[in-house]
Each structure stands twice: as structure tokens, then as C-alpha cells.
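Review form for a predicted model. The reviewer records the input and the model, then writes brief findings.
Reviewer: anonymous (R2)
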Amino acid sequence: MAVSSLSITQITLQPKLRTNHGLGFVFPRNSVNSHSRKNLKGVSLRRNTVVVSAITGASGTGIEKESVDLLETVKILDLKGNEIPISDLWKDRKAVVAFARHFGCVLCRKRAAYLAAKKDVMDASGVALVLIGPGSIEQANTFVEQTKFEGEVYADPDHASYEALKFASGVSVTFTPKAALKIIESYMEGYRQDWKLSFMKDTVERGGWQQGGVLVAGPGKDNISYIRKDKEAGDDPPIEEILKACCA
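Model under review:
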């Protein structure tokens, strides 16, 4: 079925729609402002094109040593505002770590649900389920309240982990035909965008263009055995691929 740009707009711009999931992609309401233009000009071609990799193995992960070293310096916030090194999440255990586009994103809420649906498998293998979002602890707590996500949730207000892992960012990887169809599918399944979170200043100016990914790491700070970087919004890796990396 052909989908017109009008129909996409009608589906994605309905802040008062109700949902049964509470698990609610933001097309920023305004055109790209001057701050965003400056950010977009700084996005390298490499950052937009080298965006997908899946690696399995113990050490020699396939992730750049530079990224591993940078992760050692990254600190994130738990839901109470406590600062912790991100590598502590997998220092003494194995963890599946999902990186959201932002806490209001409908596609990220769907990803959270599809990972949480396999939490029993992860629990049986002693694997922790973690979600990190670029935003404040207030946004993170609202996300938890709305989605009832049963994994651990952390905030990265400085986007430091996203920069260390060189996740894709920019208009060209946010507004794509596949992403638009994924939004439609998500709405049809009952997921909704949180527009208040989505239009907070930091998300509009910076987080709205950010893409995420999924990694499997630990035990051991340098042991990143799998990483998948989203090449566009809604680019979920197959759940079987993640489970093979974390629980096989």
C-alpha cells in the first residue's frame, strides 16, 4: 500500500491519542534551527555510513579500541541521579544494553517492549537488561513510569556514550521511508510518542536526530562481544541475533 507524506503526518502528529501500552520517533515540530544546522554540518560522512556492525566473540570484539577507551571515561546517571561509570554495567556480569534515540521516541518504546519480552530468557542466563537514553534523569523516570520497563534504565545527558560508540546522527538517518513505515506499524500496535518529552529543548536541538543501537558486554570492562549500530531510526536487530550473543 502506498503511503503519502500526508498520511504519515496525520499518524505521527497526534499528541492526544490514547494507548493501551503506555509505551509511547519524533519529527521535530519546527524546521532545523541554527543550532541544529551547526551540529548537522559537523556530522562526518563516516558517522552516517559506517553505522552497522554485528560482532560475536569474546575478546577482539571488532569494536574500535578508541571507542572502548572512550567508554572507560563515560559516566551515566541512574534514576536517583547517582553518577556511575558506564563500564560498571558489565564489569562483573553480562548485559544487553540498548541505546534509545531519546526517551519520548515511539520506536524506542517499541524496542524496549520487544527486548523486555525476552527478559525471562536473559534472566535464566544471568544476563541483565539495560536501556540508556540521551536525556535527563527526569525524562528517564518518566519513561519508566509510562512504559513499566522491567530492565534497568540510565540517562546520558551529555550523549557521551553515543559519541564514544560513534552512533549515527543526522536528518538523513532519521527521516527515511523505512522509518516512516516503522512509525505507522508502531502506532497500529498501540505505541505512542510522548510529545512532552520529545519537545524538550535538549531533545529537539540534539537528541531528535540521534540514533542508537544494542550491545552485549561483560563480564569484564573491555569485553564487548556484540554491537549493532542502527543505520536509521527503527533499525531493530533481530531478537534471535541478540539472544545468540547474550544467552547461547
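Findings: The first strand starts at residue 75 and ends at 77.
Further findings: Strands lie at 75-77, 83-85, 94-99, 127-133, 152-155, 213-217, 224-229.
Recommendation: see findings above.
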